[in-house]
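User: Second chain of the day. Same drill as before.
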Amino acid sequence: MVIKVFLASSSGSTAIKKKQQDVVGFLEALKVDYTQLDIACNEENRMWMRQNVPEEKKPANGIPLPPQIFNEESYCGDYETFFDAKEDNTVYSFLGLPPPPGSKQAHVEEEEEQEEEDLQSEEEEELRQLEEQDQQGSEEEEEAEVQEEEEEDLEETQQEEAAE
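Assistant: Same format as last time:
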């Protein structure tokens, strides 16, 4: 999986340049494999980016500004969503990548998985106990029926003997 970062090499906006540098610098610091795709010098890149940013993620004017981030063909987000993921220590999930072992995000995901497993084990134990209770209840009902039948048989036998 290759992360694609759509950038504008010749942007006149210092805000856009800073955002692009922030994204690229952070990906490099994390040693994430990524490719920079220039939308200023390459019309195909610009058109592909514009067509593949989901409508609900496009600004009011309909033209998304760089940086835009994709995992192969899947849209990850723009600078603001990247920044939020960075602040929340969820950059790997934002990028659709597994976190490296030992990272904070990997540790959090391991804890969440353990909690899910524990919850599932608790639910399975509760279900097992309920099934045991149902089975015990069924056995008790069967014993009661057998005992009732035995009592009826004994009563019939006593009535037959009394009639003789």
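The helical segments are 14-29, 43-52, 79-87, 91-95, 104-163.

User: Great, on to the next one.
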